[in-house]
Structure formats: structure tokens, C-alpha cells
Design brief:
This protein is of the alpha+beta class. Helices cover 24% and strands 33% of the residues.
Amino acid sequence: MTAFAGLRAAALAGVAESVGRLRVHVIGHSHIDMNWLWTWPDTLEVIKRDFATILGLMDEFPEMTFTHSQAATYEVIREQAPALFSKIGEHVTGGRWELATMQWVESDLNLISGESMAHQLLQGVGFAQEHFGRGPSVFLAPDSFGHAGNVPQLARSAGASYYYHHRCNPGGLELWPAYWWEGDDGSRVLALSTHSYNGLITAGAVAEAALRAHRHGHSSAILFHGVGDHGGGPTREGLQALRRFADLPGLPDARCSTLGAHAEEILAANDRLPVHHGELNTIFEGCYTTHVEAKAGNRRAENGLATAETLAALAGLNERDRLSQAWRRVLFNQFHDILCGSSVHEAYEENARDIAFAVDVADAVSAEALAVIEARADGGDIVVTNALGWDREEVVVAPADRGRRDAVRLESKDGSSTPGQWTSDGLLFVARAPALGTASYSVQEEDKEAPSIEIAEGPLYITAETDMFTIRIHRASGAIVSLHDKRVGRELVGFGTRRGSDYLDSARVDLALNVMQVLDERFHAMSAWHLDDVTAETSLIDGAASEVVESGPVRAVVAVTRAFRQSRLEQRIVLYKQLPRIDFETLVDWQEPSGLEQGIPNLKVAFNARLAGTEAWYETPYGAARRPADGQEVPAFRWADVGGADYGIALLNDGRHGHDALGSRLRLTLVRSAFDPDPESDIGQHRVRYSLVPHVEDWRRAGITRLAAGFNQPLIARAAPHGAGRSDRTWSPRLVGSPGILLAALKRAQHGGDLVLRLQESFGEAGEAVVEGLPSGSHARNATITEEVVDDIPVNDGRFRLQMRPWQVATVLVTE
């Protein structure tokens, strides 16, 4: 016995009677990191090696049990080693192999969309049901870098009763071994946690597991055993040691078991467990930005596949198999190390190929569906299609032949008209399109152009007047040093320009809006993961060149270029005459290395708003979270917001996640270098779009979640097909009722011909969803997120109603 084990044995002796009644459940586990410090061919060999080794050990040790997640690994065995797959099925039936395939892979749980989470669950649980005749009850997330607040609800809906994790235990230094995790909506799951998800079976490890359980008042403990992140799993030596421990005085009863068995003992003991409400964050804050191209690609694929699913459903096309294969590529690349930027360089070359495949499939399916949908449109020159579940008013660019026409207007079939503006990309105009529908526009020539955005150019500033704002842009930086909101008579920048009583022409440009900042972190290890001490912040307030490159009745564009350090930035600041937002289209040629001499450089953009009494809110997968505005880096999905009940600002993004808020300052991290494990991390060109939305009232009443969804899935404007309006129309659902409830997804069911409607309560307020427009004779049924029928929903006159609790995600199957 080692000295460490001897100390533990001595500690056990003091509580021998209590510990004598305690059982240690020893959980066999193989932690297979997908494409972490290796690439897919190596991962493939690890999967086959581990499954063969584990099944061999199960033959040698009849008492051995094994718990394994990640349906993607089982699919490898099913395809390439069918004999092994058959043996797994036998052990699943016999209770020795515990399925934990709640997800396709052990994904990141902060950076992916809510619909990606739904697909992870659908593919993971569906695989188990199809091939093993049962779904898993354990959600295994041992190494995920944080856990969003709606995970308990989604996991419970998919059939999970228990949730195991290692990171972000809410007990602090106490590290609760068991507790109730209560999600945003109030759903609860029994959470289990240990100090590590890897390890060996030793007397000291058994003793430590028992003592930890005893300290927290439990009579059941767990000990994970399995070697390495490169697979490995249980060892013969460990299993032999466990047999010897049965006769070793002073040690508790320790035996091979499952997480489910341990959880059932915890529940049967009726222990009073602590409760944690909401998300489990944060850790590894650098991962919200490192390898930003993988995050941008993931978002692009998520948006494309969600759009394709909706359009295919509206067109009546069955593209389920093609889309499912594309989704599996995306889901695989949501593995926590890949998406979080902590894999080797070669893994991101494979990632780029997978994302390109998924985007190509999504684009092809969308094009086929649009051909059907547009054929039903009401004629005209341009058809605008809305793939989201609410009415929208947004700027679109449509292909159109200018010919000799200068001034034009766009006329819709309802008689309304809007000015057009010719650009190098096509014809620009503000379109209105109904939920899940189309709008047709005709191009009409005008005698003179509609009034343009007023622009005044001076030596220091460019000033623009839109219908909503007066905006002043500092030429030397591209920062917005004054933004006056005409709707409420409010100035958003405190001291961006000279005040009338000042003696000098001085100001604080660094405290304006859209201020580029370079941050330098102190050199530290695990640079891809950790965001460490910042030793310097430099605001880039000089050296840029700004000029007006476009101005018309729809938008004006100010181009800003600058060089800094070894890098270069080009930005188009887009101002809209009619819309209350400002877009920033940014190209960064990032050439900042990281290392011992350079530290870890970051590029952030800061928005310093003059607001009092602010709250900081961030979108999460199918939810939102309020967090302290203390300057810490936190993850967000498509938007972040600082403000209060009467006013605020939101920042929308198309593929960035790292944010921080300090008081009323909101920052977005655009790019970040790291040297470990990829010394070339993030070097190169990066494109990013973000948008500033000043809003009256809070983020809920301003519709920020809807605006962010639209920013990511724009209206689709295309030339109208010949003979439009001649095809038969099909139905599409219309959602009315409480304003916080969204029709978040529309797709074909994974099996059968039903339509799936995903409803999301997005305000954190109870409400009622009313869905109209169902064809006569339709049936509606509540379902789990994995599309298992729960009960019927009454349908009257083509309408059904559904009461929803705060933050609830509801899945409804509709049969025509």
C-alpha cells in the first residue's frame, strides 16, 4: 500500500462504522477525445482499439461493467467491426454495458445553437433506440467546458435522468458529488460529479472516493477508472486490484457498477441534496474565441442547415437523409476540443472540409426548395423569402439588371413601395416578408431618386443623419464618437467630442462606440484554453483612414482602413436610413504571433455606452442568462445586451462568442492568438459581421432575439422565376399569442411524414402559444425533443393552443 493510501486508510479508520455501510461504484470509462492532439485517422484507430480491448476485458472479467457515450464512436464500430458491435448489443441487454449516448459526440454546451443541441440529442438517442432497442438515461459530459442553463430541460426531454460532469461543479472547493441541477425552466436532473473522469483503481482512490461521499452525507460513492484522453479505458491491473480489495481490511465495499446504479442508491437514500439553478460556468474562457474560423464555420453551417430544413418543409420536399448526413458532420465538429479551439492545426483542416460539405448540402437543398416556393409567388421581378417564423422588415440585395435605370422604387403586391439603391452587389431595398412566406416586388423606374442619407464630411469627423440617428464617426479611428437617438432624444456617448465649454479640442475617443482594442495577456501555458492576466490594453484611436464610399436612399457606407502592429483591418460601417441598427462588416488580416516574448494578443471591439443602472444579458442555446457586468469573459450565442427597463444596446454577431461587460461597456472579442497546442492558431484573414442595435425598453420588448436570428439567417431575395404564381400553394403555420414565444424551427420529423414545430419561450415569462393555419383534419401532438409522442393537443378550426412556462422549449408534431 502506498503512503497516500495509508493516510486514507487511517482516515477511514476514524469513520469505519459509517464507511462500512458505504459502497463505491467503480465505473469503467474510456475518454476518447475526437481529433484533439491527433486527426481523424488516429481517432478511428483509437475507437476500434479501445472497443476491442474493452470487450476482451469483459470476457476475462465477468464482473466488469462499462459506461460509454458518443454515438459517433459506436457508428464506427457498427460500420467497420460488426462482430464487436454485436457483442456490445449483448452486453447492453445483459446490463453490463451502460449506454450514455445522449449526444452524437460530447459537444461544447455553450457555443452551439439550441437546434444543434436538439440534433445532438436526436442523433445520439435515436442511434441507441434504433440499434439497441432502448434509449440512454445518463447524459455524460465529463470534459465539456461549461454547461448552459437550459441543458437540464433538453436532457430530461430526451430521456436523461442523470447528468455526469467534471468541470464547473457549483460546490466550489467542496465539489458536490451529487446535487439537483435545476435548469432555467425549472426542470431538474440529478447531477453527479467527481474530481476526475480518468484514473486507476488503487486503494487510495477507493478510500478517497468513500471519504468524499461520507463528508457529504452519502452512502454511495463513484470512482471512474480508465486511462487517458487518447482512449485507453480500464486496465487488467486495475480490475485485478479491485478483486484483491474485497479482502483488504479497512476499505469499503467497491465493485464494478454503472452510473445509473449509483444514482438510484443516492435517490433511495433520500439524502437532502443541494440545489443549483441555472448555468454551470465558466472555465477556459479563451476557448470562446481561439480558432475563431471553426466557430464561424460552425455558425455558418448551423444557419444554413436550419434554413434548408425549413425551406424543404415548406416546399414539401423530403431531404431528411441528405440533411441528416450533413448535420452529423457538423455535430462531430462540435466536439468540445474541436469547436473550442484547443485541437492541433491539422484537425482544423479536417474541420474546414466537413463544414464545407455541410454548407454545400444546405445550399443545394435550399436552392431546390426555393425553386418550388418561388414558383408559388405572386409574380413580379423579385421574390423575397422568409425562412423564419415571424414577419420581418430587413434590407436585402437582389440581382437585377440596371440597364439605363438610375432612380427606382420597389412595389409590392399590396401596393406599398420602397426606394431602391443600386450597388455593386445588386439592387438594395428594405423588404417586408411574412413569417415562413414570400413577398413579390416589381422594379419601377422613377423620375428622381428618393432622398439619401445626409452626409457631412469634415477634417475630423463624418456625420450622418438617418431617420433614427445622428451619427458622428471619428476619421482617425473609425469609432462612433456621437450617436444621438432621435426617437427618445438620447446621446449614447459621454465625451466622444469636444464639449462647448472646453478650452481645448479634447475628447475621450477611447470611451466611444466601435473602439478597436488590442489586449495582451501575460504568457501562460494552455494558451488555447485559459484567458489569463491582461498586462496591456491599447485603444486604436489614431492612424486609420475613413471615407464615404456609398450613399443613397437605403444606406450609406463608411470604409475604414488601418494597419496596426503586424496586422491590417478593413471595415465597412453600414448606416441604414430606415432601420435602427448599424452594421460593421470587418476583415482582419491577423498576423500577431503568441509565445514567450509576445504573450497572447487579442483584438476586441468596445462599445462604451452612456447608460445607468445596467444589466448584462447574453443569449444561450434556447435561452438567455443574466450575468454580473464585472469585466469577465463570458460566452454568448447570437447577441449580448447591456441596458435596463427603459433603454439599452445590443450587439449582434454572426460567429463570435467571447464577450465581456464592465458596467455599461460591452466588448466582443474578434480574434485571439494562442500557441498551444497549435502554434499557428488564428493567423490569417478573418471576416466578421456584427451589428449595434440601440433600443428603447429592454431587450425583450425590443425583439433582440428575433433581430439576432434574422441577422444570422437573412431574408433571401432572388429574381422571380418565369411563370411564378402558377403552382399550388401549401400551408405554413402561423404563430400568434405571447410575444416572447418564437417558432424557432420547422422541419420534417426524423421518421415518418410529420412536421416538427419547435417553440421557444424566449423572455423568461410564462405565456401562451397559439398556432394557426393548420389544414382541415390535421392532428397535433406534444413530443419530446427527440420526437417521441407524449400526448395529443386539441386542434380546433386549424388552431391549437399551448401554455408555456418561462424558458420552455416545446416540440410539436403536426400530421396533415
